[in-house]
From TrEMBL:
The lineage of its organism: Bacteria, Bacillati, Actinomycetota, Actinomycetes, Micrococcales. Its EC number is 1.1.3.41. Residues 25-191 form the FAD-binding PCMH-type domain. This is Xylitol oxidase. It comes from Brachybacterium fresconis. Pfam families: ALO, FAD_binding_4. The keyword Cell wall biogenesis/degradation does not apply. InterPro entries: ALO_C (IPR007173), FAD-bd_PCMH (IPR016166), FAD-bd_PCMH-like_sf (IPR036318), FAD-bd_PCMH_sub1 (IPR016167), FAD-bd_PCMH_sub2 (IPR016169), FAD_lactone_oxidase-like (IPR010031), Oxid_FAD_bind_N (IPR006094), Vanillyl_alc_oxidase_C-sub2 (IPR016171). Gene3D superfamilies: 3.30.465.10, 3.30.70.2520, 3.30.70.2530, Uridine Diphospho-n-acetylenolpyruvylglucosamine Reductase, domain 2, Vanillyl-alcohol Oxidase, Chain A, domain 4. It comes from the Bacteria.
């Protein structure tokens, strides 16, 4: 069975039109969408539903959040923001976006250590799918979760914490298989300032030879390679803490150049929707994301793919993709290389692996993308690629499952937590082998 995103299909006329994911890359087939305004109302919906899934900000690109039953939006639940100065944590509602949480933290002495490229994504959804920022010392966003409040299949509210649950590492990044997350507790760090600088015209030869040095030269680094040009890889985006900024850093040693800037103007190549570049210091929450919260993120009309490989094998993996780039480059809108530090979360793409994420944003042409994904996956096959759970891939379930060391542990956890398989869907069955039929 192919693990491509499930194509939209027609249901009987009575089915509610729920629409699509954020980018239009998947049309939901659920029979209804509920938007409870309280946790108590949510409990009633869950207890009465034989099959359902949680829906956040719709920023996944495949059918991971879909169901043939009821979709439950967490966006209407009451907002929470409970700062614990003594513990250095904040508890927020699961449907809160990172942008809203970060802006409120910006009024305190605390910060999130890292953020994803889009601040528009929900905290619960991002943590459930292993979403990440970049930086050789930064783990996925899920890794700073120290507590969860969840409505389980029987309608009960449960509190799971790092201290109290021996299997907490299987509960944080769970792809929505264990319940509906209503609140998340996040570890914080003292606040800090960041500057963003961009290099242009980095040669492929330098990137491949010095990949580790380049990826390690700032707090967070993103490389935006071009697959059309076999000589020039392209742009490098540095996010540096101002307290450790090294003014002696010179990209010319790798054949790149600083982006040009002029007083009162945006830095060279900066999209107006992006957070400020050009080396202008600013609060962490206004620099770590690529895009501003008050602007449209990315391109919108797109499909995304991302694969994770061992970071030390990154140059080999990139060479393998360059060898077949002529077969997929015309479909690529933008590409990005980011790093994710190893963690211990059972379903994490970075589980016990220092990882390089190879991201591709495709034109929204589903048939063409499905044709080229096997080309990309075949080129990466020698490097055991792990997919981003919320993006498109065509890897078979057995190819994915053989890489998940704690898969059997997670299957047992899912059966204990949701014995009636209320939160199962076709995606979980295809990718993890979790049956949807009642036990």
């Amino acid at each position: 069975m192919s693990d491509a995103p499930a194509p939209p299909h027609q249901e009987e006329d009575a089915m509610q039109d729920i629409g699509t994911t954020w980018s239009g890359s998947h049309a939901f087939v659920a029979r209804e969408l509920r938007s409870p305004h309280s946790v108590e109302e949510l409990q009633e919906v869950v207890a009465a539903s034989p099959r359902l899934r949680a829906l956040g900000t719709r920023h996944s690109f495949n059918d991971i959040a879909d169901t043939e039953g009821t979709l439950v939006s967490v966006q209407a639940l009451p907002e929470r923001f409970e700062l614990d100065d003594a513990a250095g944590t904040v508890t927020v509602s699961g449907g809160s976006t990172y942008g809203r949480v970060a802006a409120r933290l910006g009024e305190t002495r605390w910060a999130l250590a890292n953020m994803g490229s889009l601040p528009h994504i929900s905290v619960a959804g991002a943590c459930a799918t292993g979403t990440h920022g970049s930086g050789v010392t930064h783990r996925s966003l899920s890794s700073v979760v120290s507590g969860l409040e969840v409505v389980t299949a029987d309608g009960a509210v449960q509190r799971w914490t790092r201290e109290d649950c021996p299997d907490f590492s299987g509960r944080v990044l769970a792809l929505g298989a264990l319940g509906i997350v209503t609140a998340v507790t996040l570890d914080l760090v003292p606040d800090f300032e960041v500057r963003q600088d961009v290099w242009f015209d980095l040669p492929w030869s330098s990137l491949l030879e010095h990949l580790e040095e380049i990826l390690s030269c700032a707090y967070s680094v993103s490389v935006m390679p071009s697959w059309h040009d076999p000589e020039i890889a392209g742009k490098v985006w540095l996010k540096s803490r101002t307290d450790v900024w090294d003014p002696a850093l010179d990209p010319s040693r790798w054949g790149a150049r600083w982006a040009r800037t002029a007083d009162g103007e945006r830095a060279e190549g900066q999209n107006p929707n992006q957070t400020e570049q050009g080396g202008v210091p600013g609060p962490w929450w206004q620099r770590l994301p690529h895009f501003r919260l008050d602007a449209n993120p990315s391109r919108g009309d797109e499909i995304q793919t991302e694969y994770f490989v061992e970071r030390h094998r990154g140059p080999e993996a990139l060479r393998a993709l360059l060898a077949v780039a002529d077969r997929f480059a015309d479909l690529v809108l933008v590409s990005e290389l980011r790093t994710v530090a190893a963690d211990g979360l059972w379903l994490s793409p970075a589980y016990r692996q220092e990882s390089l994420g190879i991201h591709l944003t495709w034109r929204n042409d589903p048939a063409a993308v499905l044709d080229v994904l096997p080309v990309v996956e075949e080129a990466l096959a020698p490097f055991s690629p792990r997919p981003h759970w919320g993006k498109w891939f065509t890897l078979r379930g057995d190819q994915i499952q053989e890489q998940i060391a704690r898969l059997e542990d997670f299957r047992r956890l899912a059966e204990r937590t949701d014995p009636n398989r209320v939160f199962r869907n076709g995606y979980l069955e295809r990718t993890l082998g979790l049956p949807t039929a009642p036990a």
